[in-house]
Design goal:
The complex is a heterodimer of chains A (323) and B (268).
Chain A lengths: L2 E4 L12 H14 L3 E5 H7 L7 E5 L5 H4 L5 E4 L8 E7 L16 E6 L8 H11 L4 E6 L6 H12 L2 E4 L10 H12 L10 H12 L16 E2 L2 H9 L17 E2 L7 H10 L7 H18 L5 H16 L1
Parallel strand pairs in A: 1-2, 1-8, 2-3, 3-4, 4-5, 5-6, 6-7, 9-10
Helix pairs in contact in A: 1-7, 4-5, 5-6, 8-9, 10-11
Chain B lengths: L2 E2 L1 E4 L1 H5 L9 H13 L4 E5 L5 H13 L4 E7 L2 H8 L5 E7 L2 H8 L3 H17 L3 E7 L6 H13 L4 E6 L6 H14 L3 E6 L6 H11 L3 E4 L13 H8 L3 E2 L4 H15 L4
Parallel strand pairs in B: 1-10, 2-3, 2-9, 3-4, 4-5, 5-6, 6-7, 7-8, 8-9
Classes of the chains: A alpha/beta (323), B alpha/beta (268).
Chain lengths: 323, 268
């Protein structure tokens, strides 16, 4: 069974989230399908108690801290330990280091962090070797993202070799992005199709509030502009059948398709936008004039048009035609 | 020795399709020149059929670049192909829907129609002396049997490079490898990877595709493009320079990004 551990909450220590923010963050992670939530001691101490929903992992410095903080499903620790509930973490910066894994075969659960460059190496062969080196251990893979391949590596591990990964929301901890891995699994193997991803915009907003950062408009799954479409051929295709140009229905992640009028728009996109704005669609000759003017204005401005700009331009062309 | 891979930069075509920017001719010429200077193999300069101004702009790009091949994008439509040839590009790229959803739902046609049409389009372009590459749109959701039979016909018609387009960005590394390897087993056609970043895997899939035999990789500056964007040029070279040889280095790409940031920032 696939297990996704999200370790975003080990990366908020230098920030000042409130107890309520942390609490809500955990609840939302559970809703989107995270199996285990990993916290730092500082985050746990701020929360005081954990939400009833979900399984929790505490990141500790030394194994004996387990006694001080009882009640967690698992504990992650850098130190090697052959103990129940401990996930021993090992950093590997190079594929050649995997030979060292045999020395850790006594660990019941092991997290391998790093291996950023695995995509350039023979990743499938290496993943098999990792499994072979640790036949009796549960291996959690936490690929890092220096080369922008972490989500792909995490998914590859889950689909073909292992069943346990660590990721973080939006890849905050320089590892795979939780939401990307969840969506990829949903599309590839229908993993947890009933989990509610419509809360992702709320989770994103909360994340931005806590971290004081802004998620890129183009960020996969959660970016603000990822369902905006301008090219005529795409706008037309999406109107006929959204699946032609969308990997998944935007509504399932709390988004919606939006036609933007600009330099690349076509007649059909212009008509669709007019319909959306409740404008009367004139004869094709005039729509073409509107489209030509749209292109001219956009080239001049160097950007697409906002809806109100398009509406103003349309009204002007139509009234000019009437006079 | 590292394998040589060629960068096809589509910032001025797929990148510009990102809502939020509308490049003027002078912007496009400037960016194309920068890409040409650092050794980009092919600059996909735009879609002539958008407007006469766009077509004129592409002609200006051709005049102002030296080494890069300048390509234009056209729909699989005879009139569009004829119009696009008018710009005198080095390469005409014809986008050809190959998945059932694109063929039956968007085009409302069938596979036989697609095959007949693309071969007609290729013939028209070829007889005008223009080199042609064909983009297999939505290849990642297509029947591999249809792709292979189409490639066979395209090869007979003189097409030597096909673009494997992950139009909706759903490929995973293993699936990418499987498709590229299957094509390579059945044909000696050259492959160009064109992936989107919908699942955050554009760089990984481009690397895997190139390792499996694709000689050309489509990228954009800052990774701009439809929805979540295309394969980020800098990130791709950064991630794979240890195994591939490129005409340019990371510093040069950063320099181009810095110089074109003002023109492209609206797409980010």
């Amino acid at each position: 069974m696939i297990r996704i551990i999200d370790n975003t909450l080990t990366g908020f220590d230098g920030l000042l989230p409130s107890k309520d923010d942390l609490y809500l963050f955990c609840k939302l992670l559970v809703i989107i399908g995270v199996d285990m939530i990993e916290l730092s001691v500082a985050a746990y101490e701020k929360m005081k108690e954990l939400p009833e929903e979900g399984n929790y992992v505490l990141r500790i410095e030394f194994v004996d801290e387990m006694i001080k903080y009882p009640g967690f499903s698992r504990y992650t620790c850098h130190h090697e330990a052959n103990q129940e509930k401990i996930i021993c973490e090992v950093q590997m910066n190079d594929v050649r280091e995997i030979v060292k894994l045999r020395a850790l075969s006594n660990c019941k659960e092991l997290r391998i962090t790093g291996l950023d460059d695995l995509m350039c190496a023979s990743y499938d062969k290496t993943m098999k070797e990792i499994k072979r080196a640790l036949p009796n251990s549960k291996i959690n893979f936490c690929p890092e993202n220096t080369y922008k391949c972490a989500s792909a590596l995490a998914v590859q591990w889950l689909l073909n070799y292992g069943n346990d990964v660590t990721t973080s929301f939006a890849g905050w901890k320089n590892n795979g992005a939780t939401e990307e891995v969840i969506m990829a699994l949903r599309l590839a193997v229908r993993h947890k199709p009933n989990r509610d991803l419509t809360v992702l915009p709320v989770l994103k907003e909360l994340f931005e509030k806590i971290t004081g950062t802004r998620i890129s408009n183009k960020k996969p799954v959660i970016g603000k502009n990822i369902f905006k479409v301008e090219a005529g051929i795409h706008a037309d295709g999406i109107n006929k059948n959204p699946a032609t140009y969308e990997a998944y229905e935007p509504g399932c992640v709390g988004g919606r398709s939006e036609i933007v009028i600009g330099k690349h728009s076509g007649i059909k996109a212009v008509k669709l936008k007019m319909e959306e704005l409740d404008l009367v669609i004139p004869e094709d000759r005039i729509v073409e004039k509107i489209l030509n003017l749209v292109k001219e204005v956009c080239m001049e401005k160097g950007t697409s048009l906002k809806d109100e700009e398009f509406e103003r331009l349309t009204v002007e062309v139509i009234s000019h035609e009437r006079n | 020795m590292k394998e040589i891979k060629y960068i096809v930069d589509t910032t001025l075509r797929d990148g510009e399709q990102s809502p939020g920017i509308a490049l003027r001719t002078k912007d496009k010429v400037k960016i194309a020149k920068l890409l040409d200077e650092i050794g980009v193999y092919e600059v996909e300069a735009g879609v002539p059929c958008i407007s006469p101004a766009e077509a004129d702009g592409i002609s200006e790009i051709i005049e102002n670049t030296q080494n890069a091949k300048i390509s234009v994008w056209s729909r699989m439509n005879i009139n569009d192909v004829k119009y696009s040839i008018g710009c005198k590009p080095h390469i005409l790229h014809i986008g050809t829907p190959v998945s059932y959803i694109q063929i039956y739902s968007k085009l409302k046609k069938n596979k036989a129609w697609v095959q007949k049409n693309i071969l007609e389009c290729v013939d028209i372009a070829k007889s005008s002396g223009v080199d042609v590459t064909v983009g297999l749109e939505d290849a990642s959701r297509s029947d591999i049997g249809f792709i292979l039979s189409l490639i066979k016909e395209l090869k007979k018609a003189g097409v030597n490079i096909i673009r494997l387009a992950d139009t909706v960005g759903i490929l995973t590394p293993n699936r990418t490898k499987e498709i590229v390897e299957t094509i390579k087993v059945h044909s000696d056609v050259e492959i160009e990877m064109h992936v989107h970043n919908d699942l955050g895997m554009a760089v990984a899939n481009s690397i895997v595709g190139a390792k499996a035999g694709a000689a050309y990789v489509d990228c954009t500056l800052f990774g701009i493009g439809e929805r979540t964007g295309n394969c980020n040029f800098y990130d791709f070279v950064h991630a794979s320079e240890s195994i591939f040889h490129f005409a340019m280095n990371k510093k040069q790409i950063k320099n181009v990004e810095e110089k074109s940031y003002q023109q492209l920032k609206g797409a980010m």
